[in-house]
Design brief:
Layout (H helix, E strand, L loop, with lengths): L12 E5 L2 E5 L5 H19 L8 H14 L2 E12 L7 H17 L1 H20 L1 H8 L9 E10 L2 E10 L20 E11 L1 H5 L2 H8 L2 H4 L1 E3 L6
Parallel strand pairs: 2-4
Antiparallel strand pairs: 1-2, 1-7, 3-6, 4-5, 5-6
């Protein structure tokens, strides 16, 4: 009898973890997908308990990465920089996607990075088609919205599990028209972006897996919304 936890997933998938878009490439083992989702959710919640994603963006980003390290993820690359937009007509979501795709291609190679970028676009399209579901899901999480709009992508390659994180300082106005801020135009032409590439150490995470699941409790299911990916 096969161990389902080691069975590779056959389809791309995506989820809204609290208010961060997370994507997972087909081919990951079921256990790795769950471990990636749970460890990121745990790290994001831990960072939010100490820092505001609205007012303390870089502090939040660094604390999230620090917690990820304790969960068995080694940080291969990390950056947090001021950027200048080429046009004031671009949206936060388009910037996040471009940053995410560029980091993925640079860190993991062209084909893998391109595949992750395409998957992130699918996830954003899926969110737009699920407006009511997303609004209901986020209705109790207003304090986490806006500030940093994030995309997380995970891929298993040659036996190693990688995570790419892209976060854009949205600086969106307080309104309910766009609950994630992804379709809001950037105010002015400067913004901040945070990026990171992480590699998973399963042996380290195995020692804390049950503890993290226990601390997440009901949040592990209530804080996650499956994103319906549009057909290509």
């Amino acid at each position: 009898m096969s161990d389902i936890s080691k069975t590779p997933t056959t389809e791309d998938s995506a989820a809204l973890v609290d208010s961060v878009v997370t994507t997972y490439r087909a081919g990951m083992s079921t256990q790795n997908r769950l471990d990636a989702q749970n460890s990121f959710q745990f790290a994001a919640l831990a960072a939010s308990a100490e820092f505001s994603r609205k007012e303390q963006r870089e502090e939040w980003f660094d604390r999230m990465l620090e917690v990820m390290r304790t969960c068995g993820w080694s940080v291969q690359e990390r950056a947090y920089d001021k950027q200048t937009a080429s046009s004031t007509s671009i949206t936060v979501g388009s910037v996040a996607l471009n940053v995410f795709g560029a980091v993925g291609r640079a860190a993991l190679g062209g084909p893998i990075g391109q595949a992750l970028g395409a998957l992130a676009e699918q996830a954003f399209s899926g969110l737009e088609a699920m407006t009511k579901d997303v609004e209901v899901f986020l209705s109790k999480r207003k304090n986490t919205l806006h500030g940093l709009t994030g995309i997380v992508g995970c891929v298993e390659s040659e036996g190693s599990l990688y995570m790419v994180v892209s976060a854009v300082d949205a600086k969106t106005p307080d309104n309910d028209l766009d609950v994630l801020g992804i379709n809001v135009h950037i105010e002015g032409n400067e913004f901040y972006k945070g990026t990171a590439v992480l590699m998973f150490n399963n042996a380290v995470y195995a020692n804390v897996r049950e503890d993290i699941l226990s601390k997440l409790g009901a949040h592990a299911t209530q804080g996650v919304l499956a994103i319906k990916l549009p057909q290509l």
